[in-house]
Every structure is written in C-alpha cells, then in structure tokens.
Design brief:
Layout (H helix, E strand, L loop, with lengths): L5 H15 L11 E11 L4 E11 L3 E10 L15 H16 L2 H8 L11 H13 L8 E2 L2 E5 L11 E6 L2 E2 L17 H17 L3 H5 L9 E5 L10
C-alpha cells in the first residue's frame, strides 16, 4: 500500500497553485510556451509530477524549466542562497498579492468584493508553504535550465530572422537560417519568436530537460516513471 493518499496529492496541487498563482505557469503572460512534457512518477513511498517546459522570453530568448511537485522534491539551493527570515516570507506574500491585485483578473475580482484569498490558501497557509519550501531547499529560480544560448544584433529594426546572430543548443551551433520558419506576425509580432517555434519543432528533445537533469531535483533520484505525455489538451485556468 502506498504511503501517501489521493487527498495528499490533491492538497499538494492546491498548495502549488495558491503559492505560485498559476503552477505550472501556462497562464503567465510574461512569456510564451513553445512546448512541454509531463512526467508522472511513483513508487510505494514517493510520488512526483514534473513539467518540463520550453518557453520564449522576449528579453532572454528560449528558456527550459523544470517544474516538479511531489513528496520527495528537493530543488538544490543556488550558490550563496540561504534560508530566509520571516520578513522575507512576508515580502513574498505581499508581492504575490500585489501582482494578483494589479492583474486583469484581480481588478475584476476586486470590483466584485473578492480577492485571491477566496480562491486558495489564506495568508497563514501560504506563509507556511513558503517556510516548508525553504526548509526543503526549494529556490524558485533554480527551476530554470539555460540550455539555449541566443545572441541578437542590437541594431534598430528586425530582419526576418529577428536579428539573431548566434543560436546554440547545449553548446552546439544550430543552423537556424535553414529552419522552416512560418511567421504569423498578426499573432506574435517578434520574428525571433517564430524562429524559436521552428527550432523547437526541429530540436525539441535537445531543448527539454533530460532525466539526469530532472533527477537533480530529487535527493534519492527520480522515482520510477508511471506516465510520460508529450502532447495533451490543457484547458484554460479557471479561478
């Protein structure tokens, strides 16, 4: 018999959603999702759900993320990082409320006399989650893997390749001008984004996190895989 229950798993999902507002971040308006892989792992003692995502960030280019959740996750601390004091947790909480309140959804809820506390954990529960994450070694920024290196010409205006002058994946140069780029500038106005879309289609496996890269988020290694999804229908987040 498993050492965890279905309710414990569901509670962990709720905690992640409330703490980070939009785990696994598919609704974040600061970047565009290019691709994702969902991995479910379990044994009798441990369970984990991992999203490995490829994203387009306008100021940085392509970024790979590992977003794990489970009862055995331990994201390594960044170099020089340390556990935080109560003032830090309070600032994090206030920052989350500010971001939510200033969002379109937050403004709409305010007009109805509601706020994010009506749709997740209360403040004390969120603070407890911050402390738990910190004590387990979780540093939120550590989820990013910089596998793609892009450089841009800083001249004004953009050519059809988005002024890209270098495109490396895992240290290896990519002949990006040979990619089958099909821009739809009425949907996304950055030419470089459409180069990224074409690169993801051609080099997806190299751009996603490997099992070894994912395993570093687990002290005892990655639990046995139960399911791997490379394509699925993900409905809009409802609050």
């Amino acid at each position: 018999m498993a050492a965890y229950t279905e309710q414990e798993i569901l509670d962990a999902f709720d905690a992640a959603q409330a703490t980070y507002l939009d785990w696994p971040e598919f609704g974040n308006m600061n970047y565009d999702h290019l691709s994702a892989r969902l991995i479910a792992c379990r044994d009798e003692e441990r369970w984990a759900l991992i999203f490995s995502t490829i994203e387009w960030q306008p100021q940085e280019g392509i970024n790979t993320k590992v977003l794990p959740i489970g009862n055995c996750v331990s994201i390594p601390l960044r170099q020089g990082a340390s556990l935080h004091d109560e003032g830090y947790y309070q600032q994090e909480l206030e920052s989350i409320h500010h971001k939510f309140d200033s969002s379109a959804l937050g403004v709409m809820l305010k007009s109805q006399g509601l706020d994010m506390r009506d749709f997740g954990m209360n403040d004390e529960e969120m603070l407890a989650q911050f402390r738990k994450n910190d004590l387990s070694g979780l540093e939120y920024d550590a989820k990013e893997l910089h596998l793609v290196d892009m450089e841009f010409d800083d001249e004004e205006g953009q050519d059809e390749w988005g002024n890209i002058v270098k495109f490396n994946i895992r240290g290896e140069p990519v002949p990006f001008r040979q990619l089958k780029v099909q821009p739809q500038l009425e949907l996304q106005t950055e030419p470089a984004f459409w180069v990224a879309v074409a690169a993801t289609e051609a080099y997806r496996e190299q751009m996603l996190a490997t099992d070894m890269e994912i395993a570093r988020y687990f002290k005892e290694g990655l639990p046995p895989k139960l399911l791997v999804l490379n394509d699925w229908c993900h409905g809009a987040t409802e609050h």
